[in-house]
Write a structure and sequence with these properties.
The protein has 138 residues and is an alpha/beta fold. It contains four helices and five strands, in the order αβββαβαβα. Strands 1-2-3-4-5 form a five-stranded mixed sheet, with helices on both faces. The relative contact order is 0.20.
Protein backbone atom coordinates (compact mmCIF):
# COMPACT_ATOMS: atom_id res chain seq x y z
CA UNK A 1 0.00 0.00 0.00
CA UNK A 2 1.20 3.44 -0.92
CA UNK A 3 2.49 5.64 1.86
CA UNK A 4 1.20 9.14 1.00
CA UNK A 5 3.77 10.78 3.29
CA UNK A 6 6.63 9.13 1.38
CA UNK A 7 5.03 10.17 -1.90
CA UNK A 8 5.03 13.78 -0.70
CA UNK A 9 8.67 13.38 0.31
CA UNK A 10 9.48 12.28 -3.25
CA UNK A 11 7.65 15.31 -4.61
CA UNK A 12 9.37 17.68 -2.19
CA UNK A 13 12.83 16.33 -3.05
CA UNK A 14 12.20 16.60 -6.79
CA UNK A 15 10.71 20.09 -6.41
CA UNK A 16 13.78 21.17 -4.40
CA UNK A 17 15.99 19.86 -7.20
CA UNK A 18 13.91 21.84 -9.69
CA UNK A 19 12.83 18.83 -11.74
CA UNK A 20 9.31 17.96 -10.54
CA UNK A 21 7.91 19.35 -13.80
CA UNK A 22 10.32 17.22 -15.84
CA UNK A 23 9.24 13.81 -14.56
CA UNK A 24 6.17 11.71 -15.26
CA UNK A 25 3.83 11.09 -12.35
CA UNK A 26 1.25 8.43 -11.57
CA UNK A 27 2.26 6.39 -14.62
CA UNK A 28 -0.02 3.43 -15.45
CA UNK A 29 1.93 0.20 -15.83
CA UNK A 30 -0.82 -1.45 -17.91
CA UNK A 31 0.67 -0.04 -21.12
CA UNK A 32 3.75 -2.19 -20.43
CA UNK A 33 2.33 -5.15 -18.51
CA UNK A 34 -1.23 -6.39 -18.92
CA UNK A 35 -4.44 -4.66 -19.89
CA UNK A 36 -6.32 -3.84 -16.72
CA UNK A 37 -3.26 -3.82 -14.45
CA UNK A 38 -4.29 -1.16 -11.89
CA UNK A 39 -0.80 -0.32 -10.63
CA UNK A 40 0.63 3.15 -11.24
CA UNK A 41 4.23 4.18 -10.73
CA UNK A 42 4.66 7.33 -8.65
CA UNK A 43 7.50 8.93 -10.62
CA UNK A 44 9.46 8.06 -13.74
CA UNK A 45 11.89 9.71 -16.12
CA UNK A 46 14.08 8.51 -18.98
CA UNK A 47 17.72 9.53 -19.19
CA UNK A 48 20.17 7.75 -21.49
CA UNK A 49 17.85 4.97 -22.67
CA UNK A 50 16.81 3.81 -19.21
CA UNK A 51 13.36 4.35 -17.71
CA UNK A 52 14.00 5.13 -14.05
CA UNK A 53 11.09 4.81 -11.65
CA UNK A 54 10.42 5.56 -7.99
CA UNK A 55 7.60 4.05 -5.99
CA UNK A 56 6.72 4.88 -2.39
CA UNK A 57 6.09 1.62 -0.55
CA UNK A 58 4.82 1.16 2.97
CA UNK A 59 6.29 -1.77 4.87
CA UNK A 60 3.98 -1.23 7.81
CA UNK A 61 0.81 -3.26 8.37
CA UNK A 62 0.20 -4.63 4.87
CA UNK A 63 2.81 -6.14 2.54
CA UNK A 64 0.43 -6.60 -0.39
CA UNK A 65 1.85 -3.52 -2.10
CA UNK A 66 5.36 -4.97 -1.95
CA UNK A 67 4.14 -8.27 -3.33
CA UNK A 68 2.20 -6.58 -6.14
CA UNK A 69 5.16 -4.38 -7.07
CA UNK A 70 7.50 -7.37 -7.07
CA UNK A 71 5.07 -9.37 -9.22
CA UNK A 72 4.59 -6.55 -11.75
CA UNK A 73 8.20 -5.41 -12.07
CA UNK A 74 9.54 -8.24 -14.29
CA UNK A 75 6.61 -7.76 -16.70
CA UNK A 76 7.20 -4.01 -16.60
CA UNK A 77 10.87 -4.49 -17.52
CA UNK A 78 9.90 -6.75 -20.43
CA UNK A 79 7.21 -4.35 -21.65
CA UNK A 80 9.48 -1.31 -21.48
CA UNK A 81 12.20 -3.21 -23.31
CA UNK A 82 9.83 -4.16 -26.12
CA UNK A 83 7.76 -1.00 -26.43
CA UNK A 84 10.33 1.68 -25.67
CA UNK A 85 13.54 -0.21 -26.46
CA UNK A 86 14.89 0.90 -23.10
CA UNK A 87 16.14 -0.57 -19.88
CA UNK A 88 14.21 -0.16 -16.65
CA UNK A 89 15.20 0.53 -13.05
CA UNK A 90 12.85 0.78 -10.10
CA UNK A 91 13.61 2.15 -6.66
CA UNK A 92 11.21 1.48 -3.81
CA UNK A 93 11.17 4.35 -1.33
CA UNK A 94 10.67 3.10 2.23
CA UNK A 95 10.62 4.60 5.72
CA UNK A 96 13.94 5.61 7.26
CA UNK A 97 13.68 3.72 10.51
CA UNK A 98 12.76 0.18 9.51
CA UNK A 99 13.21 -2.57 12.06
CA UNK A 100 15.31 -4.88 9.94
CA UNK A 101 15.05 -7.56 12.64
CA UNK A 102 11.29 -7.76 12.05
CA UNK A 103 10.61 -10.94 10.01
CA UNK A 104 7.96 -9.20 7.87
CA UNK A 105 10.30 -6.31 7.03
CA UNK A 106 13.05 -8.79 6.19
CA UNK A 107 10.59 -10.73 4.00
CA UNK A 108 9.53 -7.57 2.15
CA UNK A 109 13.08 -6.35 1.57
CA UNK A 110 14.05 -9.82 0.37
CA UNK A 111 11.22 -9.93 -2.18
CA UNK A 112 12.21 -6.52 -3.53
CA UNK A 113 15.88 -7.48 -3.78
CA UNK A 114 15.16 -10.81 -5.49
CA UNK A 115 13.15 -9.09 -8.21
CA UNK A 116 15.85 -6.48 -8.88
CA UNK A 117 14.10 -3.56 -7.20
CA UNK A 118 16.47 -1.18 -5.42
CA UNK A 119 15.42 0.01 -1.98
CA UNK A 120 16.15 3.52 -0.70
CA UNK A 121 15.11 5.22 2.51
CA UNK A 122 13.34 8.56 2.42
CA UNK A 123 16.49 10.20 3.82
CA UNK A 124 18.18 9.33 0.50
CA UNK A 125 15.63 11.26 -1.58
CA UNK A 126 17.60 14.53 -1.85
CA UNK A 127 20.58 12.63 -3.29
CA UNK A 128 18.33 10.63 -5.64
CA UNK A 129 16.67 13.84 -6.82
CA UNK A 130 20.04 15.51 -7.40
CA UNK A 131 21.21 12.50 -9.42
CA UNK A 132 18.00 12.68 -11.47
CA UNK A 133 18.56 16.41 -12.03
CA UNK A 134 22.05 15.77 -13.37
CA UNK A 135 20.79 12.95 -15.61
CA UNK A 136 17.92 15.03 -16.96
CA UNK A 137 20.13 18.03 -17.65
CA UNK A 138 22.80 16.00 -19.46
Amino acid sequence: MLDRDDLHKIQNAYESAGIWGMVFKNVPVAEHTYSGDPMKIDVSYRPNGIVKMLQAVSLDANLDGVKALSFSFPQLVTGISKKEVAGAELTAIVDDNLDRNDPEIDFALGILARTGITVAATAELPALAEKARVELMA
